[in-house]
Amino acid sequence: MTRVVYITGWCRTGSTLLGNLLGEYDGVAHVGELAYLWANGVLRSGTNTLCGCGRDLLECPVWTKVLARLHPGRDDADLRRVATGYEQRHARHLRTRHTRARLAEARGRSRKSPQVARTLSALGDLYAAIGETLSADVVVDSSKFPAEAAALLGMPELDARVLHLVRDPRATAYSWRRAKEYIPAMGVGRSTAYWTGFNLASDWIGAAFPGRYLRIRYEDFAADPAHVLATIAAWAGLEGAPPVSDEATATLGENHTVTGNPDRLRRGPVRIRPDLAWMTGLPKGETMISTALALPLLSRYGYPLTGRR
């Protein structure tokens, strides 16, 4: 049975770094935002086509093997048709607005439609092919679609866990103000609206499946990465010591992430430390907008109303 740790929450929360650190545990493969494999790798319509190893996704030996396992003998045109069909079904059934419906199915309170079942079967096959190709017991997927996370919990062929990563909405809004290589910028209002929606939907998962859900804050991870990694490892059943020193330094090796923060292409030593630049860098007016939009969830996650500590 394939074991999957699915990272959900909003973007710019450190999920790429956290996923790559989890990928340093024995038997664990972090594959980045796997939901974009078909758009980025096969259809070439996504934000970038690079694997985390630095090669093009269709030239990476890992992803070429994965696709060959999934669809042996398919030519490029056939593979594009498969990718187009999957992308269309994902958009219809696995976006954030579908979280409640997927949760109801996962809990056995409603039946999956044939199209939903087909989409999830293809996703299960993809995880299995990744595990076989990379000889991994655990696949870490940082796609961050709450509906997809919810659906995984209802798949008996998977041992799925949902890791909910939260960061102060004003920090993510500050990060989104700047474009980052292949990732465009986003306004504070839009970023915080997404933050609220994605995190609220992720909370629904925790309420429905508390034993298979863990929420952590970026701020706690950045302040004490060894402790937080040990907590995650114990919850997810990962073996070994946290891959980070007492000085909060880790050494990252090669990964095969589909997409995510451009920092996924970095290797070697990395120092993990809190990033508090937003406290002075985010203009007061934008801080107030973000605070107002996120207000219902701030106290739940332990964030102050002022945006200052």
How would you summarize this macromolecular structure in one to three sentences?
The protein has about 300 residues and is of the alpha/beta class.
Q: What does this protein structure show overall?
A:
- By secondary structure, this protein is an alpha/beta fold.
- The radius of gyration is 19 Å and the shape is globular.
- The termini are far apart.
- The chain has a single domain (2-169, 210-273), classed as Rossmann fold (3-Layer(aba) Sandwich), CATH 3.40.50.
- It is 47% helix and 12% strand.
Task: Tag the structure with descriptive keywords.
two-stranded antiparallel sheet; 13 helices; alpha/beta; 7 strands
Per DSSP E runs of 2 or more residues, the count of β-strands stands at 7
Please report the distance between the alpha carbons of the first and last residues: 45 Å
How many domains is the backbone divided into?
1
Main β-sheet, spatial strand arrangement:
2-3-1-4-5
General shape:
globular
Radius of gyration equals: 19 Å
Helix count, DSSP H or I runs of 4 or more residues? 13
Q: What is the SS-derived class? A: alpha/beta
Order of helices and strands: EHEHHHHHEHEHHEHHEEHH
GO molecular function, one term: N-acetylglucosamine 6-O-sulfotransferase activity
Pfam families: Sulfotransfer_3 (PF13469)
GO biological process, one term: sulfur compound metabolic process
InterPro entries: Gal/GlcNAc/GalNAc_ST, P-loop_NTPase
